[in-house]
Specification:
globular, 15 strands, 4-stranded parallel sheet, single chain, 12 helices, binds threonylcarbamoyladenylate, binds magnesium ion, about 375 residues
């Protein structure tokens, strides 16, 4: 199959919308990461998404829908769009959805809600809930309006690989497997949406992402609860341990670089396979050159380092995360190392979550 990257002109958005209505798939930009989209009500299109991504069907998809009118009854509109079963929500839960939808949509928040009978089983993996999001990328918004159908869209990468934040990343991963990629530039957020579930116990955080826990707390009045089984892999059904991973061996530092003691360096030296000549190092904040010098001296190999934000900006670090992982994976380094953030403040919660899933711990000595 020939893959074509389309500039997001009004004509091409119209073309992509027509393709989606006809049951085809289109890779689309969003403010978080690129998505592989198909008509959520078309079972055959949804089946194609799973096939193209090589994604197991026990991992449900997010349904994307157009912005709600100002002051709309959020659950009422989602019910009228045949996405959500309003009757299955308590009035308290309904009020919470109203507050979340008004505060964060359009934007990088996904809300898991009781599912309407019209949503195909394949979208929800047979669960009685459906994940819904209103993206704010102007191209996605225009495309959703033109298509006139909600779009099921997982991140546009092959299963368990790094999520794409540019059209080029999608081409690298899905070239030859999808007919159209709509180019909307580099993603503004760079991390997937935050996924929350609204239930009898209040708000549960299933996946940290572009909306911080502090921002949720501000709107809800209390912080979201961590998902019941707190261990990674039990929040969302799709939150598998290994995820977002480069192809190379990717180890995580047991502590931030600056605080590593002789013990930890020794454990790292042992974990790096013999014969390794070049190591790629990802640090969150600070100077890459200094980090490379330090690591190189301690490990006795050549180290190239990449900082997510040398200026210490969480927003920049989030934007750069997947891009940096891809760069390191394509670099000459044979083994990769990453430092995890030493705080879970703000976007660092999601950055740490993704890095933890992408890396392997080093066995202590
Ligand atoms: O930012 C994003 O959310 C991007 C863009 C394209 O919108 N999409 C994305 O989709 O990250 P995906 O498929 O890679 O991740 C969807 C997450 C998975 O962890 C999945 O398990 C969870 O949402 N999810 C979907 N439906 C669910 C449900 N009914 N209950 C619990 N978790 C659900
Ligand atoms: Mg994904």
């Amino acid at each position: 199959m020939l893959t074509e990257v389309l500039h997001s002109t009004p004509e091409n958005i119209e073309r992509a919308a027509a393709a989606l209505r006809a049951g085809e798939l289109v890779a689309i930009p969003t403010e978080t990461v690129y998505g592989l989209a198909g008509n959520a009500f078309d079972e055959a299109a949804v089946a194609c998404i799973f096939a193209v991504k090589e994604r197991p069907t026990f991992d449900p998809l997010i349904v994307h829908t157009t912005a709600l009118p100002p002051r709309a009854d959020v659950v009422g509109v989602l019910a009228a769009r045949q996405l959500v079963d309003a009757a299955a929500l308590s009035s308290e839960a309904r009020r919470m959805v109203q507050r979340l939808g008004s505060a964060f949509w359009p934007g990088p928040l996904t809300i898991v809600l009781p599912r309407h009978a019209s949503v195909p089983d394949l979208v929800t993996s047979g669960l009685d809930t459906v994940a819904v999001r209103v993206p704010r990328h102007p191209v996605t918004a225009a495309l959703l309006a033109a298509a006139g159908v909600p779009l099921a869209a997982p991140s546009a990468n092959r299963f368990s690989r790094i999520s794409p934040t540019t059209a080029r990343h999608v081409l690298e991963d899905l070239g030859g497997r999808v007919r159209w990629i709509l180019d909307g530039g580099a993603c503004e957020v760079g991390l997937e949406s935050t996924v929350v579930a609204v239930g009898a116990e209040g708000l549960t955080l299933l996946r940290p992402g572009g909306i911080t826990s502090a921002a949720l707390e501000e709107v809800i009045g209390s912080p979201p609860r961590p998902s019941s089984a707190d261990a990674p892999g039990h929040g969302s059904p799709g939150m598998l341990e290994k995820h977002y991973a480069p192809a190379k061996l990717f180890l995580r530092l047991p502590l931030v670089l600056e605080s590593l003691g002789e013990h930890e360096w020794e454990a790292l030296r042992r974990a790096i396979p013999e014969g390794t000549r070049r190591v790629g190092l990802l640090i969150v904040f600070g100077g890459a050159e200094r980090a490379a010098e330090l690591a190189s001296a301690r490990l006795g190999v050549q180290v190239t380092a990449r900082a997510l934000s040398s200026a210490g900006s969480q927003i920049e670090a989030a934007q750069q995360l997947f891009h940096a992982m891809r760069e390191l994976d394509a670099s000459e380094a044979e083994v990769l190392l990453a430092e995890l953030p030493d705080s879970s403040d703000g976007l660092l919660q999601a950055i740490g979550d993704r890095l933890r899933r992408a890396t392997r711990a080093v066995e202590p000595g």
